[in-house]
């Protein structure tokens, strides 16, 4: 992959995720404070839009495989920009849902297409390059979240509107940056290839679904943990923010290094097993933090976030290796769209599910979540083997996997 292309793709991903950070932190308050929509309508509307976007993303990614990914990606990012401008003009429920659904559909397709472009451009080094992008994207999200924090502090309608318009601008810039990279040719399907073949590839779908269960770990760190720290532990409330910064720092510093063990499906599947045990251990530690004094709780939360972040590193590396390694060359973007369904469902269902399981269930709920992580990670090598990955049969002892 040429250095110029690497720089353009990285810059595009950074700008895009900078906008994501602004959206994640500021969108809810924009709709409630600036647009006057009821909180319940906002939650329902965004859930509807997210669910509409999941299947739409697959169809759009298929178009990219057939027509060429760069132009399709630019068209989708410009569509997102237009949808965000429309959101600024949406003051009632129906226009809000329509604009949100258009934005979600375009976003789902664009993310899959970018992953496909990275796979095609990166060649044998695609997993490592995707790991570098993951680190860059974490920095982008953190930067966007910081800007949104300033807007929330100002708490004026003009500031919220400016935030959304700036977010719209990030989509357009991201699309133009990637469009300037080297051409990526469209792919001709081989004779006999089935329409929507990725969805019909049940073994690949099973692996993607298992990955989706582990994707709940992103909801733990980005949504659940601040609520847990403030509402269910004796640790200082201000600790919630440093914990997120610790997670970001660990990912940025070590993601590329961890990806070296997952460049092939065999190593990627093993990374999942290690990730499952690490995430399980962290979940139990988070749960225990709600039953001990303040100083001990704070120390345990920091340790738990470090372990959780290691699990994220191994999970992300495994996901890069399997999502690319199990996808056929003629339908890379379409298969990435199917893979991203798991993350989409985790984002749509995760807050409600984890609020019920962990915030209401306490330590028992955290232990149950940990068991789910461990079982899913342990099952992944077998699922990957059934999908065609040459994964070794022997299991590794948990003591090694947690190191």
Task: Compile the SSE list and pairings.
Layout: H1 3-34, H2 39-67, H3 69-88, H4 93-122, H5 126-154, H6 157-179, H7 197-200, H8 202-214, H9 216-232, H10 240-259, H11 265-288, H12 294-325, H13 332-360, H14 362-386, H15 398-401
Helix pairs in contact: 1-5, 1-6, 2-3, 2-4, 2-13, 3-4, 3-6, 4-5, 4-13, 5-10, 5-12, 8-12, 8-13, 8-14, 9-10, 9-12, 9-13, 10-12, 11-12, 11-14, 13-14
Tell me what you see in this structure.
Mean pLDDT is 87; it is low at 392-403. Helix 2 (39-67) packs antiparallel against helix 3 (69-88) and helix 3 (69-88) runs antiparallel to helix 4 (93-122). The longest helix has 32 residues, at 3-34. 82% of the residues lie in helices and 0% in strands. It has two domains: 3-179, Growth Hormone, Chain: A, CATH 1.20.1250.20; 201-401, Growth Hormone, Chain: A. By secondary structure, it is mainly alpha-helical.
Task: Give Rg in angstroms.
Answer: 21 Å
Beta-strand proportion = under 5%
Share of residues in helices: over 70%
Can you count the beta strands?
0
* Helix-strand sequence: HHHHHHHHHHHHHHH
Q: Would you state the CATH class of the largest domain? A: Mainly Alpha
CATH superfamily of the largest domain: MFS general substrate transporter like domains
Main features:
403 residues, mainly alpha, Growth Hormone, Chain: A
Describe what is shown at a glance.
With 403 residues, the chain is mainly alpha-helical. The chain has two domains: 177 residues, Growth Hormone, Chain: A (Up-down Bundle), CATH 1.20.1250.20; 201 residues, MFS general substrate transporter like domains (Growth Hormone, Chain: A, Up-down Bundle), CATH 1.20.1250.20.
């Amino acid at each position: 992959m040429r250095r110029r292309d690497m720089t353009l793709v990285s810059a595009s991903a950074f700008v895009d995720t900078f906008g994501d950070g602004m959206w994640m932190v500021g969108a809810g308050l924009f709709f409630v404070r600036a647009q006057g929509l009821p909180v319940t309508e906002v939650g329902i509307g965004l859930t509807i839009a997210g669910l509409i976007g999941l299947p739409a993303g697959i169809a759009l990614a298929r178009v990219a495989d057939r027509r060429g990914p760069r132009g399709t990606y630019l068209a989708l990012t410009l569509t997102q920009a237009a949808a965000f401008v429309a959101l600024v003009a949406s003051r009632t429920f129906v226009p809000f849902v329509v604009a949100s659904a258009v934005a979600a559909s375009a976003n789902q397709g664009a993310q899959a297409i970018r992953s496909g472009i990275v796979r095609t451009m990166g060649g044998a080094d695609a997993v490592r390059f995707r790991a570098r992008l993951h680190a860059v994207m974490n920095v982008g999200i953190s930067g966007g979240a910081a800007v949104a924090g300033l807007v929330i502090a100002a708490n004026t309608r003009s500031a919220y509107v400016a935030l959304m318009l700036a977010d719209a601008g990030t989509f357009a810039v991201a699309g133009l940056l990637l469009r300037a990279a080297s051409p990526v040719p469209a792919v001709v399907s081989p004779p006999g290839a089935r329409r929507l073949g990725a969805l019909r590839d049940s073994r690949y779908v099973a692996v993607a679904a298992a990955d989706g269960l582990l994707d709940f770990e992103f909801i733990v760190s980005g949504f659940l943990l601040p609520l847990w720290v403030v509402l269910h532990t004796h640790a200082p409330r201000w600790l919630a923010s440093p914990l997120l910064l610790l997670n970001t720092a660990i990912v940025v510093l070590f993601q590329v290094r961890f990806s070296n063990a997952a460049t092939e499906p065999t190593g990627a599947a093993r990374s999942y097993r290690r990730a499952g045990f690490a995430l399980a251990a962290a979940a139990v530690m988070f749960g225990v933090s709600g039953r001990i004094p303040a100083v001990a709780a704070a120390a345990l939360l920091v340790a738990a976030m470090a372990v959780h972040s290691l699990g994220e590193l191994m999970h992300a590396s495994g996901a890069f290796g399997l999502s690319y390694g199990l996808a056929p060359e003629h339908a890379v973007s379409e298969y990435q769209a199917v893979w991203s369904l798991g993350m989409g469902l985790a984002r749509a269902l995760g807050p409600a599910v984890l609020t019920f399981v962990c915030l209401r269930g306490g330590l028992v709920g955290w232990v149950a979540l940990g068991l789910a992580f461990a079982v899913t990670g342990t099952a992944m090598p077998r699922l990957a083997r059934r999908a065609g990955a040459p994964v070794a049969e022997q299991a590794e002892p948990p003591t090694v996997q947690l190191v």
